[in-house]
Design a protein that fits this description.
Length: 73
């Protein structure tokens, strides 16, 4: 199963991921960075198993992230 990987320390808080895919992303009120909902934190990396229905939209989010802090593994 593929996973969405977020390198949160790279996030600049532009919010494009939360706008494009609100079912998976929220913006933190604390630090202004994106939060990958229901993700597991491993060191400073957040990982979420991805279902097939989210794949295409996630690819679009990856392409528009200005700092490339989101990947699929």
């Amino acid at each position: 199963m593929q996973k969405i990987v977020q390198y949160r320390n790279k996030c600049i808080g532009c919010g494009v991921c939360a706008e494009q895919q609100p079912e998976l992303w929220r913006m933190s009120r604390k630090d202004g960075k994106a939060i990958l909902l229901r993700a597991v934190k491993k060191k400073e990396i957040f990982v979420l198993p991805m279902n097939n229905s989210a794949h295409q939209k996630t690819l679009e989010v990856i392409q528009v992230c200005p700092v490339k802090s989101i990947k699929i593994s």
